[in-house]
Design a protein that fits this description.
The chain is mainly alpha-helical. About 55% of the residues lie in helices and about 5% in strands. Helix 4 runs antiparallel to helix 5. The chain is globular and about 50 Å long.
């Protein structure tokens, strides 16, 4: 891949901004602080955010291979090992699922990935057909089940992954918009619509759809159709705001839109395969959404910072100082760089 294209240059600039501001090296290990000065607890170490740091570093290595980055990936992975005392886990099934995806993408610590997959498989509640949010929780939500399903699919548990996808489709799909709602707790549906839930479910459906992408008669074809429907639903959701994703502020919300961009890029690549005109049209839609949001983030960049909301310029205060916000922007720009691997519209 050509590292000198504008999309790659933007992604590289976002990478440098995150590493220069937030990453700290301690001998053979490295980790990132949660924020820069001006935010509460700026030196905090955040497990879930490090899963996405490791994942986007691996994305960048795919796009712009570099020996220094490969060494950094090893150092960040050692940092997670140290900070989790070698366990690589937390009581939150959504968090460990995202870490599992980061390990799969980076190729680091396969034993930890297998451990995470076993924990997730064992945690599925047979009376519900879904993963709880955390140990002892009565909340069953998309943030756990979508990435958890992807980890199961990646580690050879496709039937269990398909079961989680079916549960979300039957329980969490909003009947009017066809978007994925957040979760259900004690029989009450949490109706919030978050960008990362849409993205993660698209990612899961694409994994399950793989055998049918080139064979429209394959039994997995239903997963192709669900992935397409979700891309269309996201397009309608964002249509009133010129294709911009809803913003979710700082904290964990800073990562949400980037996760959607990552899996829309996957949709742009996967759904463009074959000769199906509908698939090519949906792939172009996914591509436009990613490019629109990447362009807006880049246009609002100020002094190397990106905004939590692509509708405005970045500010050297508030949410924009969070690592999560800058990681989310980097993920989006890295996703846009990855579109160069997709078929040109």
């Amino acid at each position: 891949m050509d590292a000198d294209t504008p999309a790659q240059q933007r992604a590289a600039a976002a990478e440098r901004a995150v590493l220069d501001r937030y990453l700290h090296r301690y001998g053979p290990v490295a980790w990132a602080h949660a924020a820069v000065a001006g935010r509460e607890n700026p030196r905090m170490w955040h497990y879930w955010w490090h899963a996405h740091l490791l994942h986007v570093l691996a994305d960048a290595e795919t796009h712009r291979p570099d020996a220094r980055r490969r060494r950094l990936i090893r150092r960040v992975a050692r940092g997670v090992t140290l900070r989790t005392i070698g366990r690589w886990t937390t009581p939150f099934y959504d968090d460990i699922a995202w870490m599992g995806l980061a390990l799969a993408q980076s190729g680091r610590h396969p034993r930890a990935l297998r451990k995470i997959a076993r924990i997730l498989a064992d945690a599925v509640d047979p009376s519900v057909g879904a993963l709880p949010w955390s140990v002892g929780s009565e909340l069953y939500n998309a943030p756990a089940n979508a990435p958890g399903g992807m980890v199961l699919a990646l580690t050879g548990r496709r039937a269990e992954a398909a079961g989680l996808a079916a549960w979300m489709a039957s329980v969490l799909d909003e009947p009017t918009t066809h978007l994925v709602r957040d979760g259900i707790e004690h029989g009450v549906t949490r109706s919030e619509l978050w960008t990362y839930n849409q993205g993660a479910v698209i990612g899961l459906e694409l994994m399950l759809a793989e055998p049918a992408l080139a064979d429209p008669t394959h039994a997995a074809r239903a997963h192709v159709e669900r992935a397409r429907a979700l891309v269309r639903a996201v397009e309608r959701w964002c249509a009133g705001d010129d294709g911009l994703f809803p913003a979710a502020g700082g904290g964990d919300g800073g990562l949400f839109a980037g996760i959607l961009a990552r899996y829309l890029t996957q949709a742009a690549r996967d759904l463009a395969t074959g000769t199906d005109a509908e698939g090519h049209d949906v792939a172009r839609t996914a591509r436009r959404l990613v490019e629109r949001n990447a362009d807006a983030l880049w246009a609002g960049r100020r002094n190397g910072l990106f905004a939590a909301d692509p509708r405005r310029p970045a500010r050297a205060e508030g949410d924009d100082l969070d690592l999560s916000v800058q990681l989310g922007a980097w993920i989006t720009l890295e996703a846009a760089a990855g579109l160069e691997r997709a078929i040109t519209s």
